[in-house]
Design brief:
By secondary structure, the protein is an all-alpha fold. The protein has one domain. Helix content is about 70%, strand content about 0%. Helix 3 packs antiparallel against helix 4 and helix 4 packs antiparallel against helix 6. The longest helix is centred in the first third of the chain and has 25 residues. The radius of gyration is 16 Å and the shape is globular.
C-alpha cells in the first residue's frame, strides 16, 4: 500500500493533465473551429462563446498545473451550471440528457480544488523550486 500511496501525486498529475487535454478540445472546437463541429462556432459574446474561452484558457492552465485550485474552482462551477441549466431541463437523468460529461468534469475539477495539482505542475515549481514534489 505504501508503494501505491507514494505514487499518488504522480497519478493525480496524470489525471489533471488528461482531464485538461480533454477539456481543452471543447474550447478549441468552440473558439478555433478545430476539430470542426456540426454546430459551427458560437459567437464569442454568447454564453457558448464565453464557455469556449473558459474551456480553452482553463484547459491550458489545468494542463500546465498553473493556478490549479482557483481555475478548477471556476471550471467546476461552470460545469455545474452546464449540467443544471443546459442538460437537466430536458430530463433529470444524465444518461438521458447527455450531461454525464458535464458531471464528471464538475467533480474532477472539484477534486483538483481540494487535492491540488499533484506532481509535475507549475504551481509546485513556483512553490518549491522543483517541478516534482511528493
Amino acid at each position: 500500500m505504501n508503494t501505491l500511496n507514494a505514487q499518488a501525486p504522480r497519478v493525480l498529475a496524470i489525471l489533471r493533465i488528461v482531464t485538461g487535454l480533454l477539456f481543452l478540445q471543447h474550447g478549441t472546437q468552440k473558439i478555433l473551429g478545430f476539430p470542426a463541429s456540426e454546430y459551427g462556432q458560437p459567437p464569442i459574446a454568447s454564453l457558448m462563446g464565453i464557455g469556449g474561452i473558459l474551456e480553452l484558457v482553463g484547459g491550458i492552465l489545468i494542463i500546465l498545473g498553473l493556478f490549479t485550485r482557483p481555475v478548477a474552482f471556476i471550471l467546476s462551477g461552470m460545469m455545474a451550471y452546464a449540467y443544471w441549466f443546459m442538460h437537466a431541463p430536458s430530463n433529470f437523468l444524465p444518461i438521458l440528457n447527455g450531461g454525464e460529461l458535464a458531471i464528471m468534469y464538475c467533480f474532477a475539477f472539484l477534486y483538483f480544488v481540494f487535492a491540488g495539482p499533484g506532481a509535475w505542475s507549475l504551481d509546485s515549481k513556483m512553490k518549491s523550486g522543483s517541478a516534482v514534489t511528493a
